[in-house]
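Figure 3 (text version): structure tokens given as input.
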């Protein structure tokens, strides 16, 4: 780690596949989700090389930014913990959160109010040449439908208004680059 330092964020699988906020696919109660998040956040904190305060129950603020002089600033987001639930989810099945429905166009948040305000302020104060967004899920739209439009709605495709706000924020800084994981393939896309 001295030669190749890591900057770590979470994936959804620390808690459950496609978990969002206080919900997981299936019929888990609010208490079960709270217990699962509490155990998952503590295990993550204990086993990852992070310099964060320990979690308080089922809460662990992991969004933050890192400067590399004025060359680059990396903004690391948490897109699960504060997110509104995914649209169109059928909770009777193991959710793949794939498809399309009218609910997609309803207003819902992805980052939560505090994280979104932090990002707005941090981006506005950046003097970095490159502004890098460590974004756990794909921001660019991915229409995987054949006959009709279908989307992976646990990505930003399920949060179109929140995505527009984020892209608007990125448009105001120099050289924004979005770095994304959790898509299981290599993709280069315009946002």
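Below: residues designed for each position.
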């Amino acid at each position: 780690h001295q030669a190749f330092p890591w900057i770590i964020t979470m994936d959804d699988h620390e808690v459950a596949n496609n978990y969002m906020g206080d919900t997981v696919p299936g019929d888990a109660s609010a208490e079960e989700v709270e217990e699962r998040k509490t155990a998952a956040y503590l295990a993550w904190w204990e086993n990852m090389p992070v310099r964060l305060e320990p979690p308080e129950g089922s809460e662990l603020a992991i969004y933050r930014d890192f400067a590399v002089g004025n060359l680059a600033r990396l903004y690391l987001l948490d897109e699960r913990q504060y997110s509104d639930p995914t649209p169109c989810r059928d909770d009777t099945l193991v959710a793949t959160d794939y498809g399309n429905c009218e609910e997609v166009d309803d207003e819902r948040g992805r980052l939560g109010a505090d994280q979104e305000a932090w990002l707005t302020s941090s981006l506005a104060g950046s003097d970095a040449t490159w502004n890098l967004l460590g974004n756990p899920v794909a921001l660019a739209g991915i229409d995987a439908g054949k006959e009709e439009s279908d989307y992976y709605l646990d990505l930003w495709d399920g949060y179109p208004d929140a995505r527009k706000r984020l892209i608007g924020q990125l448009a105001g800084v120099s050289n924004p680059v979005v770095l994304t994981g959790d898509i299981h393939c290599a993709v280069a896309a315009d946002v």
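The two ends are 32 Å apart (CA to CA).
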